[in-house]
Specification:
two-stranded antiparallel sheet, 24 helices
């Protein structure tokens, strides 16, 4: 596929370069754009994996130290932060607010707990498959990068398109609205908070966290670690209270004869829906793959983070649900709109305010984690030529993808003013789950097409087969039970096909299009003080050969993965 053809820094310098002239760019007349390009070759940062401390001159602006690698994304995500990303993105507000979807469709407490356990095991299997893909194709971008490399540009673009258009903006908007709802809960205990106030507070939350992520990768990971620890402490409190209840003899609904007492006729369709709800509750398990390039020692820390995080989340989900039924009957749990709050009111007395605060903290960390990982997805898409190249640039001192973060925040803010956020989530939730299976099917295809490809982690093929059987069962049931919703989701995704052929595949675009993209990119570089990462630039010899073959075409841009030649001394 052909990238968005943008020429960020064109003008006299580029024309001289196209003619083969080598001029001294260290002149007082150097324009601002050339200064930014020169910054790509001279700005410095760390890529070391040994956790070396930051250079003093950069501590206030970000993290990293000077070396010869130039401006790149830094490897600053260690094992603890990696676990924080997985756990923090999986555990959002759902386990606090509405874990009743599984129980409602399972038809009994015991079967609901079985669904939570099996779904956790299937999630762990899927995560192991992603771990192999993550170290075999060691690029940020997660399933987008894997689908694109295995199945081609169009398939990868459709994954990126649905993520950019709906999935991440709507999810982040909903989490931010949940945060504002629980922050304002103490001020409006007997009524709903004003809609405008909710949306304004959600917008403030998004803007604050975007600023944190733009300022420093280390700040963002510290925020993630702190709030992940906070939500685990809150869930730990719930679990401890449940243990206390069991010790007091309140375990009626945990006795086998009562736990599997069905309050509705068991149906395959309802059980499948319970598994689907459980799978959605574990959503976010693949987010660490979006930041593979920023992991310290990814070959070791990626699988380790998965081995730690997924069992931990499964344990928390199962025992939190056990704790809930020690204080509430199934009918009370299903009737509650905020299960953790109801649980706190029953058992914590005057300390019941802890629960809404815990939900707020959990969602705040969820917004941070989603912003952090989704911006890397957009960064990876732009680097591959599937989004405007400005989104593939990083700050010359802070080493953060500021344009991608701003784009992520802006798209989420647009969703906040949309009244149909929850409807959109229903439409595209099916598509998001669809691509999980497509990605893991790609693992099998890659084993067949490239059996000798180095694989630092190699799982038994029985694992992707098990996952795909479970995935196919849920996908087929979803199509059968909700054909209209799934059909609309597929239609939204397919709107990306004409966009791909017009914006990516079509090479001979009008000059006015190139000029417009050039102007936007040039302005964005100066406004955000960003350059292309050092490692993405082709070598000097490749640039000169490209210019000699076709100077005009080289100035417009190259094929996927290339960029404009830089002006060097």
């Amino acid at each position: 596929p052909i990238e968005w053809r943008s020429t960020p820094l064109v003008g006299a310098a580029a024309n001289q370069r196209a003619a083969g002239e080598r001029t001294d760019r260290r002149t007082d007349g150097m324009d601002e754009g050339s200064r930014l390009r020169s910054g790509a070759a001279t700005a410095t940062a760390t890529g070391s994996k040994d956790g070396a401390t930051d250079n003093d001159s950069l501590r206030s602006g970000g993290s990293g130290k000077k070396d010869e690698a130039g401006v790149t994304l830094k490897k600053e995500i260690g094992l603890v932060s990696a676990c924080g990303i997985i756990v923090g993105n999986i555990i959002g507000s759902g386990i606090f607010v509405s874990p009743k979807g599984v129980m409602e469709n399972a038809g009994s407490v015991g079967l609901a707990l079985v669904v939570w356990i099996i779904t956790g095991i299937i999630t762990a299997i899927g995560a192991l498959c992603y771990a192999e893909l993550g170290v075999t194709i060691p690029k940020s971008g997660g399933d987008y990068s894997y689908v694109k490399d295995i199945f081609g540009g169009l398939a990868g673009f459709l994954r990126l398109w649905i993520a950019v258009l709906v999935i991440y903006p709507t999810n982040q908007a909903v989490i931010a609205l949940t945060f504002s709802n629980y922050v304002l809960y103490p001020l409006f205990p007997t009524c709903y908070a004003p809609e405008l106030g909710l949306r304004l507070l959600a917008a403030v939350c998004l803007l604050l966290l975007t600023w944190v992520n733009c300022s420093s990768v280390r700040w963002a990971t510290h925020v993630q670690d702190i709030f992940t620890a906070g939500k685990l402490l809150a869930l730990g409190l719930i679990i401890i209270m449940g243990i206390v209840q069991v010790c007091r003899g309140h375990y009626y609904w945990l006795e086998p004869k009562n736990a599997f007492q069905m309050w509705q006729e068991p149906e395959v369709g309802l059980v499948a829906l319970a598994f689907l709800q459980g799978s959605f509750a574990y959503g976010g398990w693949n987010f660490l793959n979006y930041v593979t390039e920023e992991l310290v020692d990814p070959y070791r820390n990626l699988p380790r983070a998965i081995f730690i995080s997924i069992p931990l989340v499964t344990f928390v989900y199962v025992f939190a649900n056990i704790a809930y039924v020690t204080a509430m009957s199934p009918s009370e749990l299903l009737a509650s709109n905020a299960v953790a709050v109801t649980f706190g009111e029953k058992l914590l007395g005057v300390m019941s305010w802890i629960m809404p605060i815990s939900v707020a903290l959990s969602t705040f960390g969820g917004v941070n984690g989603s912003l952090f990982t989704s911006s890397r997805l957009f960064f990876a898409g732009a680097r591959e030529g599937h989004l405007p190249r400005l989104l593939a640039m990083i700050h010359i001192k802070r080493f953060t993808p500021i344009p991608a973060l701003i784009f992520t925040c802006a798209s989420t803010l647009l969703m906040l003013v949309t009244s149909d956020i929850y409807t959109l989530i229903n439409y595209v939730g099916f598509i998001n789950y669809l691509f999980y299976g497509v990605t893991i099917a790609g693992q099998i295809v890659l084993r067949w097409k490239q059996p000798n490809l180095p694989r630092p982690i190699k799982v038994n093929l029985i694992f992707p087969v098990i996952y795909l059987l479970f995935w196919a069962f849920l996908i087929i049931f979803s199509l059968w039970s909700e054909p209209v919703v799934c059909g609309i989701g597929l239609a939204i995704m397919m709107t990306g096909v004409p966009v791909y052929y017009l914006a990516i595949h079509w090479q001979h675009k009008p000059q006015c299009f190139h000029s417009m993209i050039d102007s936007i990119t040039h302005f964005g570089q100066k406004f955000c003080v960003v350059v292309y990462p050092e490692g993405s630039r082709p070598s000097e010899d490749q640039e000169l050969r490209s210019l000699a073959d076709d100077p005009c075409e080289s100035l417009k841009g190259g094929t996927m993965g290339e960029e404009m030649p830089s002006t060097r001394d």
